[in-house]
Write a structure and sequence with these properties.
single chain, mainly alpha
Length: 128
């Protein structure tokens, strides 16, 4: 569904953020083993964040819209490995500016595997 349609449905209360989260999590479960699109992913955090946002008053233009960040963008307390063995286990001590601006209104906070969006996705250079 397009972002504009999601936002309209949220405003009308005909669609809940938690329902969208459940739908997206189901889709990720289905296709993730084939595409390896996430470097790391925590379903429980996503579910908890969606639940929290559902209870809050809508704020911001992208409120409730799912978001995933590339694995080279820092998210405080989350793994940021840049799909590299050198950074394996590194947890960022801060949020990147883009994250601090988007995260308050969004709920999917996981890292997209850098190798999955590059032309050589199946490269042996990626640790994923």
């Amino acid at each position: 569904m397009e972002i504009s349609k999601l936002l309209a449905e949220f405003k009308k209360d005909s669609l809940k953020i938690e329902d969208v989260a459940s739908s997206i999590l189901a889709r990720i479960d289905k296709v993730e083993p084939k595409v390896c699109g996430f470097a790391h992913f925590d379903k429980q955090k996503v579910h908890d964040r969606a639940k929290k946002l559902s209870k809050e008053k809508q704020q911001g233009r992208l409120y409730g819209i799912p978001m995933a960040v590339k694995d080279n963008i820092c998210v405080e307390g989350e793994l940021t490995t840049c799909s590299s063995k050198i950074l394996d286990g590194f947890k960022s001590p801060y949020d990147a500016t883009v994250v601090s601006k988007l995260y308050p209104c969004s709920w999917l906070n996981s890292s997209i595997n850098i190798a999955s969006i590059s032309p050589n996705r199946c490269s042996h250079a990626s640790i994923w």
